[in-house]
Here is the input.
Amino acid sequence: MTELEFRVAATNATFSRFNGQPLVLGTTDCARMLAFHLKGLGFKPSLLKAGAYSTPVGARRALTRMGVSSLSEIMDRHFPRWDSPAEARIGDICCVAGDGDMGDAMQVKLHRDRVLGFLDGVCGELVNIEHGAAWRVV
Here is the structure.
């Protein structure tokens, strides 16, 4: 299997698992989607070591237990950040400003300007026009 085929397979699995799912903190949110996707790419995501949470306060506490203030900080520890997020490839991780005080919102790059992410409480295919950061994950 080529690297591209591997990326496509992992991205398709993430899309199948999360597309159409409601946002439920600690179960189906961008951190859990990110952990699922990275695991599908062969990484052991440290995101799961933060413990359970079900509220925004609990999510922030989970990040604090890991010694970070955002998911971006975790990504920076493990993967190279791209200065030009528009060049992200399928399966890479993109980041945009999240709603409210939750900080960064993580997304999985699908194709062209499309990403898998949460909007209005549901996960789905979105047009990413606000590239904040991106990480190459393979």
